[in-house]
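Subgroup meeting minutes
Present: P.N., E.W., G.H.
Scribe: E.W.

1. P.N. recapped why we're keeping a running log of single-chain structure predictions: easier to compare across weeks, and new members can see raw inputs and outputs side by side.
2. G.H. added today's entry (316 aa).
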Amino acid sequence: MITKREHNGEEIVIMENRRLRAEIAPGVGGRVVSLQGVENGYQYLWRNEGLPLKRLPAGSEYDPNFYGGIDELLPNDTPEEFNGRELLDHGELWTMGLDWKTEGDSVHLSGTLPLCGLHYEKTVELCGDEPELLMRYRLTNTTRSRQEFLWKIHAALNIQEGDEVICPAKTAEPAGEEWSKWKTAQPFDWPVVRGQRADIVPPRNGEMDFLYLYGLKDGYMGWRRPSEDLGLMYRFDKRVFPYCWYFASYGGFFGHYTAVLEPCTAMPFSLREAAAAGRCAALEAGESLETEVRLYAGSARGLEKVMGRPSPWTAG
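Output recorded in log:
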């Protein structure tokens, strides 16, 4: 079932089945502003209660306007000059208004990023009566030159002490000493560093963390709280998203207490550095990239089934 409502002047598209309710705001980059279990009533997504939902001007500073929910960063993260173009803070998509329409039981969102010329399309549908969203993507380079880019899914979660982050990565690397509670920039075998579990959420202690996770055995990243039988997981093609970033604030980033799961096409957060190292996505003139991502939000016990599915993207 698809309905819509308005909130602070923004259209909200609502998709709901017997087990999951998702709310999408096309006017703010297609952000998923709510992901709530119908049976358990749990809100999986964290949001900044101090900010209203509204579209911001292109080039706005991201960190003080971190609203939460699930947004996507495209074509970059950090603002910098790259290939003669000044890239905006956290990219163009998060401040864009997208065209949208319903197509049967799905919602189609689209728009062309004016600076980089990438055309973005996403079709979202609920998977029958399962607590799962299927998102089909198509990115097209509408320019006459090769475009290198970073594309990242950015899901901010409600957390509490003892929650577990799930990622089948071989290696974790802090994004920098200033960002990591471990006070090191040296890679370590995920998830244990200095005898401690980096995948377990600590209490609100004023710290923060920012890790690159790579060497993925499979294309998934998730979170669970077994004590309340809650779980969330992304499934994706690891050839498209070969890296997972993990950013978490335990009170140290603007006082927020949230963990952000971030399947990404690039590493590190500087697109210039990622391109120089051959660690970013690229499309030639007129070329398109098509992929799909599945997002499960339901029982923690159901995660084993999600993780155990054969990957359709790496078969053969």
